Each structure stands twice: as structure tokens, then as C-alpha cells.
């Protein structure tokens, strides 16, 4: 699978597409499918308490741009009909569509009410126009069912705390579960195929586990932590029913790109993708990291890694379109690397050579994906390469993707009877070689 994050923070306004984002994105689908994108991750599509919202604090879960409330009918992304049309176009192009499920907290409600446990007055009275999943203080922490969940979110909007849902309340739990079922329903609901779970550190893991074991769909959790053991611990809690965004790998890739003194010997084994590749969603930036801690130097080195290694790679909208890293119709950017991932990046990964500035690994191949060799060179002054023993003896290797400070194509190579061959990459560059069977 190759995911595409089809948004970034404030994208409708930044792109001049307020209220028509779904329609705009629909026009992009065929071209994305052509380079091998097989999944779209959409922003949260439920309406918040104000129109110009990215949706990460839902008000009416069932209003996906259908009811005239909170400033209008459309969400910031468009009306419900255009959302469904986008999803249908994605399905027609053999893509799955991932909903961003915000299950921890809500936007502010319609009226204040007193929580008798704390004595505080909060905006926790909800009377949504959809008529579905109305809520009051008993649906949030603290209430008679539970005093606190896995962690308080402590969000704030217009001076009001954003309340955390209490899933221990059976009504809340059933409301969330029915909402998930409706999001996936292609007839009466929206037609999503899977879920990205927002801010999972802040609510109990059994909710994600329950949904995943029930729906048996693709699911990826945002467990934001650079500690690989902590991320694996969360996946243990959900009984490996979902995947997780590979934040440990992201931080390693960020260091590789941003820090000219990064030692590439620290890269192998750094991410979840090395230990649990079937549960790793790898990425080079997202809507949050782009605003706070982005990769700012030679980001194509990071894309060369995630699009040749194990894990499910996720391409970020701004990298592809706004930062001009797609480089279509050339061998140098994300477009070509996506096609490399689709056509060649199968099987397990083996490290062939590693030093402080040079990293060489191979994919062993699986079924119709014959495998590849990837070279990453972080030396800013010279071409780097080395002799390596690949799994293919007496084989011609063609360099099909490359980029660096020197844009000349690395020379094609041939292995001897023992599989030994030389491979190279340009300064601050990468090269991907594939065997010619």
C-alpha cells in the first residue's frame, strides 16, 4: 500500500479552496493512482462548531456538510455529496479511503451545564441538528462512570476546555461504535474503508482494539512518541490489531536530512518498520510536524528510504505539490520513487553496507516485485559507493531512480558470479538499482 495524506493544516484557505476541497481533491485522484497511490487519508470530515476548522474537534459527528448549523451547510472541505463523490472516484481508481477518526474529544457544545462532580460549568450540552449522538456532561470525564481516561487532552477553544469523551459510559461507547459503522457504510453512510486514530495517547486503547477487531479494516494509530518501545507497547495493548505511524523512524530520518553530521550507522534498526514492518506506516512529515518540527533539508533522501523499505509509506500533500518534490516525468523525485515502490520494493530488507555517510540495503523481492538495491549518501562533497554482495549473481543492474547535488545518472552495474557489484550515489543523494531479469 502507498498512502497519500490529502491535506495539510488550513489547506482550504491556503489553496483558495474553501468549501470545495473535496471537489479539488477529486481532480487529483486519477494522476495519483497512475503513480501507484493506493490509499487516501482525508482530514476529519465531521462539522465542528465553526466552519473554518480542520475538523480535529468535532461537534456533530453525523453532519459531514449536510445540515445548516455552525455557520452554514458545508464543512470547510465541502458538502457531503462532494465527499461521497470523491470517495467513489477513489474507489473507481482502486484506492481505499481512510477517515481521520477523532474519538478522544469534542468541540464545545451549545450550552453550559454544571458538572456536579467538579462543580464547574462547561459547554457540554450538545443538540446537533443531525439528531444523532446528542451529549451532555455524563458523556465526558469526569462523570459517574470514570473520573479520568488515559490522559487529559486539555485543548482550549475560545476560553473553553474541549471535553474528553468518557468511553466507559455505555451510551458514549455505543455512540462511537455506531458512528464508526456509519462512516464505513457505503449505502446509508459515507463509504470510508479504514481509520486513522487521532491522539490515541489520550484515551484508553481498548476502544481502538474493539473497533479494529470488529471492523477488520486498515487502521493506523497516531501514537506520537519517538521511543520505539513505547509505540510497540501501544500495539501490544491493542493486540496488534492496528498499525502505528512510525515516529521513531521519522525522527531518525529528520536527523539524517537536517543534521549534516548524522551518523548513518544509527539508521538501521531505528524505526518500527525494522521490527514490525506489517504494522509500520512510515512518513517524512505530516500536517503537525510540518508546522513544528519539519524535515527542511534534502527531504528526498527520506522519501528514498520510505519508498524502498518495508512499512506502508505515506506521502504528504505539501511535499508532493507545494514543495515541488514530485518532479514528474523525471527519475529524480517522489513520482518515480512511488513507481519504484510499486514495481520493485517487495520482500524482506537486508543491510549490505553501512558507514557514517553511506547506507546500502537491498529488498529481496516477492512475487512480481523483483527487489532492488538502494544507496543513500549523506556526504556533501563527493560521490560515495562500495562493493556489496547482492543476492543476484551475474546480473545487470539498472539505476531507475536517483537524485543529489550532482544530477548525473549513476552508471548501471553488473554483478559477478558471487553477486558482488559496485553501487554509487551522488553527494547528498540516493540511487535505486533494480536487477534486469
Automatic annotation (TrEMBL):
The active site is at residues 198, 222. Transmembrane segments: none annotated. GO terms for molecular function: calcium ion binding; hydrolase activity, hydrolyzing O-glycosyl compounds. GO terms for biological process: carbohydrate metabolic process. Its cofactor is Ca(2+). Keywords: Calcium, Carbohydrate metabolism, Glycosidase, Hydrolase, Metal-binding. Residues 3-367 form the Glycosyl hydrolase family 13 catalytic domain. Ca(2+) binds at residues 104, 164. The keyword Isomerase does not apply. Pfam families: Alpha-amy_C_pro (PF09154), Alpha-amylase (PF00128). Belongs to the glycosyl hydrolase 13 family. PANTHER family: ALPHA-AMYLASE. This is Alpha amylase catalytic region. It comes from Vecturithrix granuli. The lineage of its organism: Bacteria, Candidatus Moduliflexota, Candidatus Vecturitrichia, Candidatus Vecturitrichales, Candidatus Vecturitrichaceae.
Amino acid at each position: 500500500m502507498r498512502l497519500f495524506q490529502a491535506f495539510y493544516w488550513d489547506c482550504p484557505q491556503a489553496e483558495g479552496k474553501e468549501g470545495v476541497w473535496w471537489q479539488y481533491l477529486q481532480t487529483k485522484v486519477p494522476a495519483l493512482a497512475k503513480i501507484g497511490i493506493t490509499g487516501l487519508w482525508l482530514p476529519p470530515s465531521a462539522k465542528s462548531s465553526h466552519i473554518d476548522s480542520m475538523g480535529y474537534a468535532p461537534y456533530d459527528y453525523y453532519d459531514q456538510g449536510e445540515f445548516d448549523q455552525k455557520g452554514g451547510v458545508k464543512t470547510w472541505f465541502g458538502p457531503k455529496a462532494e465527499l461521497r463523490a470523491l470517495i467513489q472516484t477513489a474507489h473507481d481508481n482502486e484506492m481505499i479511503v481512510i477517515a481521520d477518526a477523532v474519538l478522544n474529544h469534542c468541540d464545545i457544545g451549545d450550552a453550559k451545564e454544571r458538572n456536579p462532580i467538579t462543580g464547574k460549568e462547561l459547554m457540554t450540552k450538545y443538540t446537533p441538528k443531525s439528531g444523532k449522538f446528542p451529549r451532555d456532561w455524563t458523556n465526558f470525564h469526569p462523570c459517574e462512570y470514570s473520573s479520568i481516561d488515559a490522559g487529559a487532552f486539555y485543548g482550549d477553544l475560545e476560553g473553553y476546555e474541549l471535553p474528553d469523551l468518557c468511553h466507559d459510559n455505555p451510551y458514549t461507547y455505543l455512540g462511537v461504535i455506531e458512528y464508526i459503522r456509519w462512516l464505513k457504510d457505503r449505502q446509508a453512510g459515507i463509504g470510508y474503508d479504514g481509520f486513522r486514530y487521532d491522539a490515541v495517547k489520550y484515551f484508553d486503547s481498548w476502544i481502538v482494539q474493539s473497533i479494529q477487531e470488529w471492523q477488520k479494516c486498515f487502521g493506523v494509530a497516531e501514537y506520537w512518541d519517538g521511543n520505539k518501545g513505547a509505540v510497540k507497547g501501544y500495539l501490544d495493548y491493542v493486540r496488534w490489531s492496528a498499525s502505528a505511524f512510525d515516529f521513531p523512524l521519522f525522527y531518525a530520518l529528520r536527523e539524517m536530512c537536517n543534521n549534516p553530521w548524522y551518523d548513518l550507522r544509527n539508521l538501521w534498526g531505528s524505526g518500527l518498520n525494522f521490527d514490525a514492518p506489517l504494522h509500520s506506516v512510515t512518513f517524512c512529515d505530516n500536517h503537525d510536524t510540518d508546522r513544528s518540527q519539519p524535515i527542511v533539508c534534502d527531504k528526498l533522501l527520506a522519501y528514498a528510504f520510505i519508498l524502498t523499505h518495508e512499512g506502508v509509506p505515506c506521502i504528504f500533500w505539501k511535499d508532493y505539490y507545494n514543495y515541488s518534490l514530485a518532479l514528474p516525468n523525471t527519475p529524480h523525485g517522489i513520482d518515480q520513487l512511488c513507481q519504484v515502490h510499486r514495481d520493485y520494493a517487495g520482500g524482506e530488507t537486508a543491510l549490505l553496507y553501512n558507514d557514517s555517510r553511506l547506507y546500502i540495503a537491498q529488498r529481496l523481492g516477492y512475487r512480481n516485485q523483483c527487489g532492488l538495491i538502494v544507496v543513500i549518501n549523506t556526504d556533501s562533497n563527493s560521490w560515495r559507493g562500495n562493493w556489496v554482495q547482492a543476492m543476484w549473481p551475474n546480473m545487470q543492474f539498472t539505476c531507475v531512480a536517483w537524485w543529489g547535488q550532482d544530477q548525473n545518472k549513476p552508471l548501471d552495474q553488473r554483478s559477478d558470479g558471487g553477486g558482488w557489484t559496485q553501487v554509487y550515489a551522488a553527494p547528498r543523494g540516493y540511487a535505486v538499482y533494480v536487477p534486469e531479469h
